Amino acid sequence: MKKSRVGFLGCSGLLLLLGVSAGSPAAALTGTFITTVPIVTSGLTGPIGVTNAADGSNRLFIVQQCGQIRILSGGTLLATPFLDIGSTGSNLITCGGERGLLGLAFHPSYETNGFFYVYYTRHDNPATPDNEDGDIVVSRFHVSANPNVADGASELILLTIEHSSQGNHNGGHLAFGPDGNLYIGTGDGGGGGDPFENGQNKDALLAKILRIDVNSDAFPADPLRNYAIPAGNPFAGPTAGADEVWDFGLRNPWHFSFDRMTGDLFIGDVGQNLFEEIDRQAAGSPGGVNYGWDCREAAHNFSDTNGDMNVNCGPVVSVDPIMEYDHSLGCSVTGGSVFRNLPSHAMFGNYFFGDFCTGRLWRGVPGGGGTWTRTDVADTAFSVSGFGESETGRMYFTDLAANTLQWLAPFTFADAPPTTFGWAFIEAIHEAGVTAGCGGDNFCPSSPVSRGEMAVFLLVAKEGAGFNPPPCTTPMFNDVPCSNEFAPWINELARRGVTSGCGGGNYCPGSPVSRGEMAVFLLATKEGSGFTPPACPPSSFGDVAAGSPFCPWVKEIANRGVTAGCGGGNFCPNNPVNRSQMAVFLATAFGLPVP
């Protein structure tokens, strides 16, 4: 299928001006923006998913279909796989088509117990008489003493499901819910039109979302059932249906996710010939939801040529999707995640997803009464095979055709996309309410910061977005009358002993701040007027003499990790501070959360 490549501006990624009003604190902004940024462009083979371990390492773990889990750490793709169950000598999986290593989830207590879980289609075991090639396996592994390498011999099989007769519709996604239980998405068993009638069969483990408790074993006599049934599973006990089933009526749920803020469950379910769907289940649901397959395809009655469409489709009560699209736009939905990285962004709370065949990206915008509106984000050349989030909530997706990892990055200012120096720090000071930019939708990252502006930035970064200094009644500097918009802020800095001006009774509010001055202003505002940094020598930078009045202040901000200088072992103390640099200084010095 031909893919449209419209909408690209520049070679760094897709840049879309979406024209949506931004929220507080940047109420003056009139637009929001989003871009795709290539993160890994070489070294991957068959990437179909990405996730994080929530262990404070900020690593990304990339799932490769033929059995490897790769680690992206500090921007570097590590050469040694975290886990390899597909290579010669350790080949547990069968790979090809829709089979392979399909899912990865880290235990909520991974940082302390080292457990992680995988979902794969099994390679045939010639030592057993049954044909097991393609059967689904969910198993647990343990990290080794090396945090970047798993113990490949530590596998404990939790669950197996027969799936040998058809190669497609394997499902494959895993995720821990807010309740600490492991959720498992299974396909309907393959073929067209659900020939095995698993969708409406609550006793079958296929065509379902399963929920199991991995922290205990209720079946000690069965070596292939190493889990327990969580209390509250809708069909547990005497109720008709398999104990493990949470939801049913799904065709091939390819990636589901839990909203990290609300706990709502979102499911991307791949359709047959006409429609793709996104389903949503609100947090606190008792489960047992029927999403309709194979009586319904998305929000439409389904019929096929198998002659079995009415077998289980009497008075079926099912839940329709919150969004759907037909096959004029794509052919295989890839479920995504809810954007929670920038709380002030207008897209905060939107659900992002894509299509594997056409590369289209969409977002779902919540409305009143539980309604959602599908809105175009981009028509791209990517084969969108899986979405995932970083520990901070950045959204990523894998591109199977080009073997890349892409960052799907909403950003706030039109002139400060994620490729801008200091982008994350710019977003941090915006989120903290320090600035709403320089006017319109812009931040003016290369513009110098004036001494008047600096007074505002420093005090808001120190005290918070709600801080307002006392009004100006008596000017403290000759060149800053009370009519000057910065007068209350400049006077407050002077009252705190942060500054005595630029000399001769003046403050020079329109003059740019030098990098040397910024070191003094930062520390004096943060620590108070009584603070004195350790003396020089030695100096931390070649161009800051030990006898310079700025040397102790510059040395101290370097020691605190606020700056590494301007390059080449220098600090450039006399250079003006531009707004990007100022964002880095403020966010780092005052400990503002960086998205």
Gist of the model:
11% of the residues lie in helices and 25% in strands. The protein has 595 residues and is α+β, with helices and mostly antiparallel strands.
Write up what this structure looks like.
By secondary structure, the protein is an alpha+beta fold. Helices cover 11% and strands 25% of the residues. Strands 1-2-28-27-26 form a 5-stranded antiparallel sheet, with no helix packed on it. Residues 1-30 have low confidence and may be disordered.
List keywords for this structure.
595 residues, disordered N terminus, 2 domains, single chain, 11% helix, elongated, alpha+beta
Give me the secondary-structure topology.
Blueprint: E1 15-17, E2 33-40, E3 47-51, E4 60-64, E5 68-73, E6 76-77, E7 83-84, E8 101-106, H1 110-113, E9 115-121, E10 136-143, E11 150-161, E12 174-176, E13 182-185, E14 208-212, E15 245-248, E16 253-258, E17 265-269, E18 275-281, E19 296-297, E20 300-301, E21 323-326, E22 333-338, E23 351-355, E24 360-366, E25 372-379, E26 384-389, E27 395-399, E28 404-411, H2 423-431, H3 451-463, H4 487-495, H5 515-527, H6 551-559, H7 579-589
Antiparallel strand pairs: 1-2, 2-28, 3-4, 4-5, 5-6, 5-7, 8-9, 9-10, 10-11, 12-13, 13-14, 14-15, 16-17, 17-18, 18-21, 19-20, 22-23, 23-24, 24-25, 26-27, 27-28
